[in-house]
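Here is the promised in-class demo. Please do not try to memorize the tokens; focus on the logic of going from shape to residues.
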């Protein structure tokens, strides 16, 4: 017999690189109050060491990306600023997860987030911000993996993204990971209660 599952919900998470998004989301996965699934985007960028195809991203060629885009397979897709590569959310994977009652996390950039909200106005949108730009700069330099020029570019990108943060329903400051995770758990619990009340 078919189980009557509630439909899932889209949760869009953005924030500048260096704001600690990945750490917060990893921790969230361990304690979320709703059944979360992390959507896997497609990208034309090559895998970094340790990244696994189908887990971190679906790594595809520019040709395949263009073809799938032409066929309308993306919920949203963009050439992400400063990266010179395409990134996109595959509609088929998202709708399958939503139909299974999952809360689907899309970790995407600001232009992607705005495009998703056009199609799914009830998506829960969360912008994770660093404590301050100084803190962000410290973290980016502390990684030690990027040149001074690359750090400067990331900071420019961060300023551009921060300028659009108020387009998100929620902003969460990540100056303490546990607090940021708790805040997101509260947002998700509230979103579920609001929907149940409708
Ligand atoms: P990275 O190459 O460092 O994994 O990600 C670069 C940027 O692409 C990040 O800002 C990330 O949020 C964004 N991104 C990842 N997947 C998608 C996607 O499917 N759509 C959009 N619009 N942005 C994405």
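The designed amino acids, position by position:
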């Amino acid at each position: 017999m078919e189980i009557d599952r509630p439909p899932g919900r889209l949760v869009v998470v953005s924030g500048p690189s260096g704001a600690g998004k990945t750490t917060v989301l990893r921790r969230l996965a361990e304690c979320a109050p709703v059944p979360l699934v992390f959507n896997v985007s497609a990208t034309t960028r090559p895998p970094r060491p340790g990244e696994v195809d189908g887990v971190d991203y679906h790594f595809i060629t520019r040709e395949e990306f263009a073809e799938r885009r032409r066929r309308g397979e993306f919920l949203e897709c963009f050439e992400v600023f400063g990266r010179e590569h395409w990134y996109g959310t595959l509609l088929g994977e998202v709708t399958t997860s939503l139909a299974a009652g999952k809360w689907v996390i899309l970790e995407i950039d600001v232009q992607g987030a705005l495009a998703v909200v056009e199609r799914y106005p009830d998506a829960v949108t969360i912008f994770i911000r660093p404590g301050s730009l100084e803190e962000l700069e410290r973290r980016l330099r502390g990684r030690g993996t990027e040149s001074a020029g690359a750090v400067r570019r990331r900071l420019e990108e961060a300023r551009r993204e921060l300028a659009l943060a108020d387009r998100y329903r929620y902003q969460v400051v990540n100056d303490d990971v546990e607090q940021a995770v708790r805040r997101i758990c509260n947002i998700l619990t509230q979103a579920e209660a609001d929907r149940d009340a409708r």
